[in-house]
Amino acid sequence: MSARATPGVAGAALRSLYPIVIGFTLAYLMQTVVAVSIDDYYSKVLIDIGIAIVLGVSLGIVNGYAGQFSLGHAGFMAIGGYTAAAIVYYGSIKLFGTKAIYGGSLGPGELLLCAGCVAGGALAAVAGWLVGQPSLRLRGDYLAIVTLGFGEIIRVLIKQTDDVVLSEKKVAAASWWSLMDNLGGGFGFIGGPRYIDAKNPFWVWLFVVVVCLVAYRLKYSNRGRQLLAVRENEIAAEAMGIKTTKAKVSAFMTSAFFAGIGGGLYAHELGNSMRPADLGFQKSIDIVIIVVLGGMGSISGAVIAAIAVTLLPELFRSFAEYRMIAYALALIIVMLLRPQGLLGLQELWEVEWRAVGRSIVTAPARLVRWVVTAPTRARAALKAAADRRQEDRS
Amino acid sequence: MTAAAPVAPLSVARPAPALAAVRLAKSFGGLKAVTDLSFELPKGGLHGLIGPNGAGKTTVFNLLTGVYKPDAGAVHVGGQPMTGKKPSEIAQAGLVRTFQNIRLFGDLSVLDNVRIAAGVRARSGLWRSLLRTPLYLREEAEIRARARQLLDVLGIAHRADEIAKSLPYGDQRRLEIARALATRPTVLLLDEPVAGMNTVEKKAMRGLIQSLRAQFDVSILLIEHDMGLVMDICEQITVIDHGVTIARGAPASIQSNPAVIEAYLGVPDEPAPTAGEIGA
Lengths: 394, 280
What we know:
The structure holds two protein chains of two kinds. Chain A folds into two domains: 14-350, ABC transporter involved in vitamin B12 uptake, BtuC (Orthogonal Bundle), CATH 1.10.3470; 352-394. Helices cover 74% and strands 0% of the residues of chain A. Chain A has helices at residues 2-37, 40-65, 73-96, 108-135, 142-159, 168-173, 176-179, 202-219, 222-232, 234-239, 244-267, 281-294, 299-315, 319-337, 353-361, 363-393. The longest helix of chain A has 36 residues, at 2-37. Chain A binds chain B through residues 8, 12, 15-17, 213-214, 217-218, 221-226, 228-229, 232-233, 235-244, 250, 254, 340, 344-345, 391, 394, and chain B through 54, 58, 65, 67, 86-89, 91-92, 96-97, 99, 101, 103-108, 112, 115-117, 119-122, 124-126, 129-134, 136, 139-140, 143, 179-180, 183.
């Protein structure tokens, strides 16, 4: 009996964790093969893409799967980022006696970075619970308003903090409690060791694999389908026995957790400024764009959009200045031609490419038809809305 | 298995009814939508709730399923009090409904619509789902098997991979019933299941509703405007008008009840019967 049970347990453990092994291998290869063989500039762009993937895919869990529009992802990113930065910077001095990079690959310094990111994620998840509990009980656009305000509150709070304590002696003497207020204020968290650079992208890719794995397994699980049910028809979902508030809060917390990790990675990438101004509303919108363009509920869509949104400003330097205009136009066009986003709910490998080809060929004709028929449809939509109100009342 | 043997109304020492409403009342501002509504649906029963347009039928469903909180009165499912509970809790207790204006998970596949309902009591939480533990994998297999089986019974198995909102109207109604049954209900509330159907579809749906009771061991409460269907398959009918119960009884007695005829057709020459008048 036990002889049969043992391989069962081992098999189950292997089945549940083998993607992590693949993730480790991938991250290791990115570090040891890719990062050394390409130009530092490209390696850094790849890292930026990786962080954008972590942020985009995590936001997709709440905006895409659960259909709850959150505009505060940068707020969770800031919580995670500042938590990780404080743990790594002050922790380095207290534990290792230096604020420089300490230890090599997978050495104590990098493990502290990993722990800092996870702690940042956990704190962001707690914040997600606090924000989500009241606002996710309500249907409609309340979450967007609340999260928008939340992001701003976090930004302003961080701005009020004192300067980073630069002297190693003073840090060693101070208590953790008193250091919590020394996050750099408006100047940003400066002086910390930057463990992630063009030659050290390991942790970024590890977390990219983890967030994609979590999003994928969630999407195709019973829990994930419950989230999709909430998004599709919350009244029906509740009537079938799904605890909709609980489902939404748990999705929101998962999303916030990985936003916090994304923030932790961002904070330790060489060349990034960790100022409150960089983690404001604008950043939230950047991440929302990834989800909306890629497809509400598509992981591979978010990955593609993250690549596009990171590459475009690099390819066209002047694009960075005009990107808000470009994003607005892109959003309008997507909403007109493909309101569900590039891939919608599908993944890359589920797409029927023949249908896509047909839809691309007919796109100009559809655009013309859309413009011509706009007034008729507007009238019909108004009438339908009035009918629906009537129906809801009955 | 044959449906329409009239059930003796109030026998003594019965088991708890599958569903009981006790003096339910609900008003919206000055409008009394439901007044003093009581009824019992015995285990395995098939009862009808009828009334003219705007009589308060759907409000009754919303009270029973917890969408509205009643101003007074109580709802019991299988003897358990449900008053003040959330719709999801009431559904988990075994009372599940379909909707008059179909509410499917439109962008998801037909199979996923049913799988969602089949999984509402699954024990695997977030961690088990992410780690794909043996329990989770077993539950997923069970959920899929149950969903497939229900699609088979409802005759829409060949559409399992289609997007729900692309189904023809009749199949959407069937999918709603499949989804409701997937949650393993003890009581099924059907809100106008044959609305908008043609004669052939109605006939098929009538046979289906009758067979469901035996096959899934559910009690059914039906709202319907189609008198032919209601009179044919229901054992007992409650008639409400302006939120007031005006008649209750077997189909034959309802058809000849003057209060019902007045509510539907109007009888201008005679004085209106009082609200308390009960048929049967």
